[in-house]
Design a protein that fits this description.
Blueprint: E1 2-6, H1 16-29, H2 37-43, H3 48-55, H4 63-80, H5 93-101, E2 106-111, H6 116-125, E3 134-136, H7 148-157, E4 164-168, H8 171-180, E5 183-187, H9 194-199, E6 204-206, H10 209-222
Parallel strand pairs: 1-2, 1-4, 2-3, 4-5, 5-6
Helix pairs in contact: 1-4, 3-4, 5-10
Length: about 220
Amino acid sequence: MKLVLFDCDGTLVDSVGLIHEVMTRTFRHFGHRLPEIAETKAIIGLTLDIAIARMQGKFEVDAEATAMMAYYKTIFVDVRSEPGFQEPLFDGIAEVVATMALQDDLLIGAVTGKSRRGLDHILETHGLTHHFIVSRTADECPSKPNPAMVYECCDETGMSPRNTIVIGDAIYDMQMGKAAGATAIGVSWGYASRPELVRAGADVIVDHPFDLLAHVMKEKVDA
C-alpha cells in the first residue's frame, strides 16, 4: 500500500497566471514595486504570508505582510472569476489521478500551500474531490518545507512516510518530502527548473503526467 500526495499549484493545476495577477494588484495597492513573474513562480508552494514576505525581501512575516495577505484574499475570488484567470488542470492530470484512485493499493491525497477553500474549489471544479481521501492545506499546517503536512496525512491514513510518495513541482515539495522520509517525485511542467528540483532532493523527475503512473507503480513493486 502506498500513499500518494499531490501538490496543487504547478502540479495539478496551472495557476501562475491567476496568482501573479492577484500578487500584482496587491503590491500595487500597497505602493510597492510590482513583482516579476519569475518572483511569483519562486514563492508558489509557500503559505501566503511567508510568500509575500519573501517577495518583499523579508525573512519574517510583519504587520504589513499580514495586511497584504488579507487584501490578497479579499480580491482573489473576484479576480478568479475574470476571463483568463481560471486554474486549468494540466493535460493528463485528470486521467492519471483517476487511474491511481482505481488501484486498491494506492491512497490519494493533496498537500498544498493553498487555503482549504482554495483547494476544495479546485477539486470540486474539476470533479476530483472523490479521488482524494486526505488533504492538508495552509490553514491546517505550517508552510512547506516543514514536513507536518506529510506527517498528518500519514497519521490520518495509517500510513508511514517510507510508504508515501510526494509529487510536486516546487523545491519546497521536494524538501518537505525528503524531510518527512518519503519518496519525492518532481514534475517538470510546473514552476521550478529541473536543476532546482535535483538540488532540492528529488528522487526522480518526470516530464509528463502519464510518466507518474510508471514511477508510482514501480514504487509499489519495490516496497
